TrEMBL record:
InterPro entries: BchJ (IPR010249), NO_sig/Golgi_transp_ligand-bd (IPR024096), V4R (IPR004096). Residues 136-197 form the 4-vinyl reductase 4VR domain. Pfam families: V4R. This is Bacteriochlorophyll 4-vinyl reductase. Coiled coil: none annotated. It comes from Roseibium alexandrii (strain DSM 17067 / NCIMB 14079 / DFL-11) (Labrenzia alexandrii). PANTHER family: DNA-DIRECTED RNA POLYMERASE SUBUNIT I, SLR0144 PROTEIN. One of its GO terms (biological process) is bacteriochlorophyll biosynthetic process.
Amino acid sequence: MDRQSLQADGMIGPNALTQFRSPLEKRGGQDLFETLLQDARIASLPDMSGLIPEGPVARFHKTMRATLPDLSAEISRAAGVGTADYVLKHRIPGLAQTLLQVLPASVSKHLLANAISKNAWTFAGSGHFEIAGLTPLIFILKDNPLIAGEHAGRPICHWHVAVFERLFQELIGSHVRVTETDCGACGADACRFEFNI
């Protein structure tokens, strides 16, 4: 299945769901995670062999934010870090990682941003991802399915922020910070992630 088909069918990477297990169990035990899965109408976790439908994942994110409003940002960030660590371990060859780490940041950031863009459906699902600027580096995610229908007073895409930030910190430099400056849940036309590199 090609990239356009995957986006049209609303498929997303399984880490957008599975990486929530550890931080949730640390906070509330296995029962909390299982309860949230049931509330989101998810019968079982995916086997990590391929992309999964975004609908149940979006329900899980929404359920988790509604059930744990004071903890959802922290848990989402931890799940985002776990997702990035999985990508580093299983998806980016060691040689490529070493190359990104030794090249000047001005070069590495372009290479890493382009690689992320080429694999955007794994975290964007049916949303539309683009690189909107290079200095500073800015990612735009329109129609983010993980926050569809949500309304918030401040940006809520903590999982995405943590995924991007962890990847860039590990491959470009520990000083990198990512801020979601606009969010679809706050009425913006897209979620906007700005990098301080």
